[in-house]
Amino acid sequence: HLSQRLATVAKYVPEGSRLADIGTDHAYLPVNLLKRGLIAGGVAGEVVRGPFENAQHEIKREGFTAQLTARLANGLQAIEATDHIDTVVIAGMGGTLITQILTQDYARLAGVQRLILQPNVGAHLVRQFLMTHGFKLVAEEILAEDGHIYEVLVADRTTTPVTYTADDLRFGPFLLAAPNAAFVAKWTHEAERTQAVLQQMQAAKQVPTAKVATLRAELTQIKEVLQ
Ligand code: SAM
């Protein structure tokens, strides 16, 4: 049984695909997809030994060692050409780390048609990566679960480059087009947080002007979208 967050990620894994789940932890996602007969197999990658052993254990327990390989590796280095991976999931990390992982071993994405990325924070960095690395967003979701708000970004390989506006990058083109309650909650909270930081800065003696200007611009951008 997957969390709503991982179930949303799972929804976008194409049927019959060969999946690499990078930072898999317990390998819950790929094992669940195999149980439901939705993927052919793939790789569960982990850079930390403890979670890697959890993944190995789970795969063995559920009887999928023939279809799913756990690999102890940094990021995309878990993917070998002979795995024929066509879909990559990176979920439950910050946007900075997700972007680093994708950039570091970009060549390993040869053959990958779809990326499903679930940044906990910093989704704009992930969208910026997609825009500049031959992928285009095809769907986005935002959801609230257990007091957290999560974004899921789905992107496919493209030969026609896409350009996202500053608003698209920050808020997500699909989320902007159909803002739901989670979207409004997230950005209302962000606006309040930015406002509070600005007030603290203005109360302080030395105000870093550039930083204030950036935050002001951010606040304006958020408020315009929330209107
Ligand atoms: N993907 C699962 C999910 O969404 O529920 C687990 C998320 S867990 C919060 C993040 C996992 O990513 C951790 O198990 C961590 O060890 C792993 N991780 C962090 N950096 C990594 C990297 N460079 N390569 C592979 N795994 C990484």
UniProtKB/TrEMBL annotation:
Protein name: tRNA (Adenine-N(1))-methyltransferase
MF terms in GO: tRNA (adenine(22)-N1)-methyltransferase activity
Listed InterPro entries: SAM-dependent_MTases_sf, TrmK
Top-level taxon in the UniProt lineage: Bacteria
Keyword terms, alphabetized: Methyltransferase, Transferase
Biological source species: Levilactobacillus suantsaii
GO BP term, pick one: methylation
